[in-house]
Amino acid sequence: MGRILSYLKDRGVLKEPGLRRISTRRRKQQRPYAVRKPKGYQAKSPGDLVEIDTLDVRPLPGVIVKHFGARDLVSRWDVMNVYIRATAAQPASFLDILEQRMPFPIKALQADGGSEFASQFETQCQGRGILLFVLPPHSPKLNADIERAHRTYTEEFYEVYDEEFDISSLREALERWEWTYNHVRRSQALNWKSTAEYLIERHPELASIKTRILAPPKLFNM
Question: What is the pTM of this model?
């Protein structure tokens, strides 16, 4: 049989069908607005680039709290909030909080390629004129500042939190701690100044919002 097939092939009577190769490479997901950060893009002023990411907090067996954190690379001003369950609306909701609590306009955000920072979040960024940079896969080191902040949040807040663990109490305590973090806690990266002190001293162009920088949240009983 083999000799017969070879004979027919040599005569050109029998022709083998061409191979149809199927690519196993994953198709790149198209993002309507988010792009890779340009190589020449530099954060020089507050708001030029804010890193954003999520952290799963497991305070009790079977309980998962979704923590959203954001850090401005220039001033190291942080904003954070927590949610009790994962929904597509959370990132867009956090964007509202981010704009309310950052004492300067946000020019660009940088996030990983997670699904929570697509869809509604991407649409919201586009509608507000905020650039959205998405990281390449498996590259958390490119979001190193907010990744390091997660460790701080865990060690200095969640591991010492001893109040009620309902979402309202947790949010209030986290907002108080956020204010303390930005106004009281000293940072070696800022020459041992607090973020608020750094902004007032090094960025006088923000003088018009100085009251906003210094004002404590209404959650404080002062």
Answer: 0.80
